[in-house]
Amino acid sequence: MAALLSKRVDATVQSYPEIFQARKLGMNVLADIGDFGFYTNTSNIVTRSYLQQNRAAVKGFIKGQIEGMHYVKTNKEGSLKILKKHLQVTDAEAVEGTYEFFAKRLPRSPRTEPEGIKNILVSIDAGDKNPADFIDMSLIDEIEREGFIKKLYGN
């Protein structure tokens, strides 16, 4: 943001809350990666051996993550307080814009989409690889089968 403001660069990649702040300053968003299809940028990553040896711990971690996602989706006021504290942003509109951006895109489950992995593989000239070779959704499948997510959301 500093480089944009000082005109040392003409464009850059930004995230929220910086995008919101840039718009307030009259800057234009040239593209939103969300408009280009799935592109996995965050995932829980462990080795296969770690998962085998620590399956219960990883499952507990994922359940905690799902509870956190539920909190964001169902407790706007609490989420705004947390964002304001950790983003260290005083602009209430920027914090609210950040919340709105992420809350509406946040799924109920941290499931990695194969299409997102495929897009990454294509971008690194490995499009011939099968995304399924890089994904293990068995714990999330198990958590969903057990009704954990349905209990949180009540449906």
Describe the structure.
The protein is globular, with a radius of gyration of 19 Å. It is mainly alpha-helical. The protein contains 9 helices and no strands. Helix 5 packs across helix 6.
Secondary-structure element order, N to C: HHHHHHHHH
Low-confidence stretches: none
What oligomeric state is this? single chain
Average pLDDT level? 89
How far from one another are the termini? 42 Å
Helix content: 55-70%
Continuous helix count: 9
Give the DSSP E fraction (strand runs of 2 or more residues): under 5%
The radius of gyration computed from the alpha-carbon positions, rounded to a whole number of angstroms, is 19 Å
Largest sheet: none
Tally of strands = 0
Structural class: mainly alpha
Shape: globular
Topology readout:
Layout: H1 2-5, H2 18-24, H3 48-53, H4 55-74, H5 76-87, H6 92-105, H7 114-123, H8 138-145, H9 148-153
Helix pairs in contact: 5-6
Q: Would you summarize the structure shown here?
A:
With 155 residues, the chain is an all-alpha fold. Helix content is 56%, strand content 0%.
Provide keyphrases for this structure.
single chain, 155 residues, mainly alpha
